[in-house]
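Notebook p. 47: complex prediction with adenosine-5'-diphosphate.
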Amino acid sequence: MINIILFGPPGSGKGTQASKIVEKYNLLHISTGDLFRYEMGNNTPLGLKAKEYIKKGELVPDEVTIGMLTNKVVANQDVAGYIFDGFPRNINQSESLDRILAEMNTQVSGLIALAVDDEEIVSRILNRGKTSGRSDDNDESIIRNRIEVYKQETRPVFDYYAKENKSHELQGVGSLEEVFERICNQIDQL
Ligand code: ADP
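Predicted complex, structure tokens below:
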């Protein structure tokens, strides 16, 4: 299996690039943000719980997030591999992911981070907010909180996998095709 963590701050293009990667490498794309939005759209208990945090730009608690992610992986084991988008977002989630994959006799192949600076992120997300219908994309103070949460809680995940020489950072600014090519070059070296 090839299991990739697509990593980077909010608005760095993970979702867009993940869709292109799955076409080329035939992996299953698992986006915790998309899973939450599906649950919120259906007003499920999990969706209502997640909404309390997402609207403030905070992380949804681990017991909710990790359970949801585990269910998705366990229900889809007959795949060539996974591309994780938006997970893990803290060290505890990283340790859980390692355990889940170890139980399946596999592991994280590599983490690919897209580097995009803060001001570019804010402008991209505000722009996306015009059409995404996401309330967390429309308010600059919430966007800045998401960036802060990324720096405090999520960025350490990069260092966690760097200890196993699995973390790679690429320039996330450029055309969609340019960024995609950089990612593919990296995947082919994993
Ligand atoms: P973005 O990367 O643009 O912030 P996502 O769709 O990945 O968008 O995530 C949207 C929101 O969903 C996050 O701000 C957070 O509140 C919640 N979320 C997504 N993934 C996780 C996760 N792994 N752990 C906790 N909360 C998460």
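Notes: Strands lie at 4-7, 28-31, 82-85, 110-115, 167-171. The chain has a mean pLDDT of 97.
Next step: compare against the earlier run before touching the bench.
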